[in-house]
Amino acid sequence: MAEDKKKDGSALLAKKKKVKPRKSRDADCCSVNFLKCVLHIFNVVFLFAGIGVLVVGAWTVATRHRYVALLPTPTYPAIAYMLVFAGALGVPMSGLGCCGLKTENRTSLLCYTYFLLITFILEAGAGGLAYYYEVAVEDELRAELNHTFLYNYALDNTISNAVDRMQTEFKCCGAVRYQDWRRSAWHEHDPRLLVPDSCCITVSNRCGVRDHPSNIYHNGCIRQFTNHIRDHLIILAAVGVGMSVIPIFGFLFSFILYVKIKHVLD
C-alpha cells in the first residue's frame, strides 16, 4: 500500500515537471511592461515632434503661400498640407496610444500601429517630395514665371497681388528683366505706363511712367524668387525626412507589444 502511494506521488511529481511554466510579463528583456514603458516615453516624444511638424507646416501655409499663385504646379502647397496633416495626427494618436497601453486593448494598439505607419508615409513622402521639387522648381520657374507675369498680370487679381508683393519685397521688376513689361498685356491696356507701380523704389500712383534707374528697380525677380522657394523647400525636406524616423520606431515597438500581449492572453 505504501509502495503504491509512493509510486503515485512519483508519477504526479514527474507530470508537474513536464508542465512548462507559463511565461510571465517580465520574462525577457522585451517584456510587455518594458515595451509599455518605452512606448509611454515614445508617446511624449512623438507628441512634441508632431506639434513641431504641425507648426512648420502651418507656418508655411500662413506666411509662405502668398506666392503660390505664381508657381506652375501645386507641389509646394501639397508638401505643406501633408506636413500639417501629419503633425495634426500627433495629438489624437498619442491619446489613442496611451489608452491602448493602459487597457492593453489589442484593437487600439493595432489602430495606433497603423496610424504610425501612415504618419511615417506622410512625413517621408513630404520630405522626399520637397527634396525632389527643390531641384525641379528652378526649371519650372524659368519656363513659366515670365509667361505668368506678361499674360496674367492685371487680368487675375490673385496673381496681380502676388506679383506686386514680390516686386516690392524682393526689390525687383519683371520676371527676367524690367523691359519685359513692355510686351505684356497689361502694358497694351495703358502704353504710357512702362512698368507697374510696384517696381518703383518709392511706390506712388502711376510712378511706373518712368523706367530710369533712379525711379525703378532694374533687376528681375526670378533668381531671388527661386532662391526663396528653394531655401524653404530645404527646410521642409529636412523636417519631413528627419521627423519620419520617429514614427517608424514607434511602429516597430507597438507591433512587438501587440504580438506579446496576444501571446500572453492566448
Describe the structure.
With 266 residues, the protein is mostly helical. Helix content is 70%, strand content 0%. It contains nine helices and no strands. Helix 2 (32-63) packs antiparallel against helix 4, helix 3 runs antiparallel to helix 5 (106-152) and helix 5 (106-152) packs antiparallel against helix 9. Residues 12-24 have low confidence and may be disordered.
Topology of helices and strands:
Layout: H1 2-18, H2 32-63, H3 75-88, H4 90-103, H5 106-152, H6 157-169, H7 185-189, H8 222-243, H9 245-265
Helix pairs in contact: 2-3, 2-4, 2-8, 2-9, 3-5, 4-5, 5-8, 5-9
Helix content: 55-70%
Shape: rod-shaped
Number of helices: 9
Mean residue pLDDT: 83
Oligomer: single chain
Largest sheet, strands/sense/barrel: none
Q: Which parts are unreliable, with pLDDT below 50 for 5 consecutive residues or more?
A: 12-24
> What is the structural class?
mainly alpha
From N to C, what is the helix and strand string? Answer: HHHHHHHHH
Number of beta strands: 0
Report the end-to-end length measured between terminal Cα atoms. 42 Å
Rg over C-alpha atoms, rounded to the nearest angstrom: 32 Å
The amount of beta strand, in percent, is: under 5%
